[in-house]
Amino acid sequence: MTRSGIWFFFSFFLYLLIQVMLLKNLVLFNTAFCFLYVAYILFLPTETNILALMVIAFFTGFVVDIFYNSLGVHASALVAIAYLRNYWLRVITPQGGYEINSVPSLEANGTQWFLVYTIPLIVLHHFILFIVEAGGFHGFGYTSMKMLFSVLFTMTILVILQLLTTERRRI
Amino acid sequence: MDRLLRFFYEYKAFFIFFFLELICAWLIVRNNQYQSASYFNSSNRLVANIVGFSNGVREYFSLRDINKELADENAILKTKLEQRTQSLYSLEVREIKDAAIINRYEYVSAKVVNNTTSLFKNFITINKGKDEGIGPGMAVISSKGAVGKVKSVSDHYSVLISLLNIDEQVSSVIKRTLNFGTVQWDGSDARFANLLYIPRHVKPMAGDTVVTSGYNAIFPPGVLVGIIREVKLKEEAPFYELKVELAQDFTKLAFVEIVKSNLKSEMDSLELNTIGEPK
């Protein structure tokens, strides 16, 4: 296994532990959630096979579901993201394409590209998640409010994390 | 056949996607069924240990509140016990002699190790399970009021359906007018639930107490659920819209009591024999 392979293996557990031990308890104003585990799927290498991606997504979502007592809800949202991720990457390919073995990141691809890449996928993830969890479109106003604030919260943490890891690599 | 296989191969990503989503849908549906005995939830030992650890850290910050609550409850119980013994001195005859009726409800105390309040379907994990005789369907209360029902159990842990779960309904009664209704949460504010099916002719007021009815034999009758805060009656609507402030603040839940209803199976089998399968 290559070095980056080992890193992706361990970061799987890292993301999950942070999610279920820390972020699960961190709900701002009872409306804003942080689902950082989505980042694990978003920041796997660009050439990752779509089938592998979906299987990883399913297991990630499944483990999160066990902790949230919501079997299937997080898994379904994350599998959808994993399915669409590579198509979306292809649509927004920057000029000259991606470097081989590169990881989508703020550092390598620029802020604008990064936001275009992450925001739609995270919005979609949260949309599926909250709609499935609520079991339909009743109380849609409240659900969309939850969705909006959660997207903001998740994005903030995501960007902070990206900036932090960039800093470390420079040193 | 060859073309069919090629078709599947060409769209394999989509079919696997579809297949995984089908599994998810199946899991969601299965998980929603009440009282399913499932292994993949937070009553799983490893999972409960992990969430228990993070809850243990959090608990240090609320120890003072928890202590005070328990001391207050102790004081109330002691007063009640004293009143009861005093009244029994003068009372020659005890009204109920049947031991089965007297010991109808048994209480087991447990500690909350995991609790959410901000999802639509909230669950609570506690640190007592099958080994303490806890089974699916039992009611759970706290010193303040009703908390929920047991959903599934493992050897040492159980998962409860919180009152703050949009699927949970509790048969309740307005204490002053004795009218029956159903308390159900609407998924938004963790402090309030709705009391449904109170018909027009009743005159509920803000400040009325809502307690459990004891109709379903899960909850003992008279457990406090909450206090009515808002009364609305739309024109032409058959029922009131009542907002109930829950007696138990679910964000501060630390200790709960599981109610073992010893006569429940007798009541259920009697009802089953005479009325038939519940719908």
What do these coordinates show?
- The complex is a heterodimer of chains A (171) and B (279).
- Chain A has 171 residues and is mainly α.
- Chain A has one domain.
- Chain A is built from seven helices and no strands.
- In chain A, helix 1 (3-22) runs parallel beside helix 3, helix 4 (73-91) runs antiparallel to helix 6 and helix 6 (111-134) packs antiparallel against helix 7 (140-170).
- Chain B has a six-stranded antiparallel barrel with strand order 1-2-5-4-3-12.
- Chain B is built from six helices and twelve strands.
- Helices cover 32% and strands 28% of the residues of chain B.
- The longest helix of chain B is centred in the N-terminal third of the chain and has 28 residues, at 63-90.
- In chain B, a hairpin with a 5-residue loop joins strand 1 (105-115) and strand 2.
- Chain B folds into two domains: 45-165 and 253-262, Beta Barrel (Thrombin, subunit H); 169-252, Thrombin, subunit H (Beta Barrel), CATH 2.40.10.350.
- With 279 residues, chain B is of the alpha+beta class.
Feature tags:
heterodimer, A: 171 residues, mainly alpha, 7 helices, 0% strand, B: Thrombin, subunit H, Thrombin, subunit H, 2 domains, six-stranded antiparallel barrel, six-stranded antiparallel beta barrel, 6 helices, 32% helix, globular
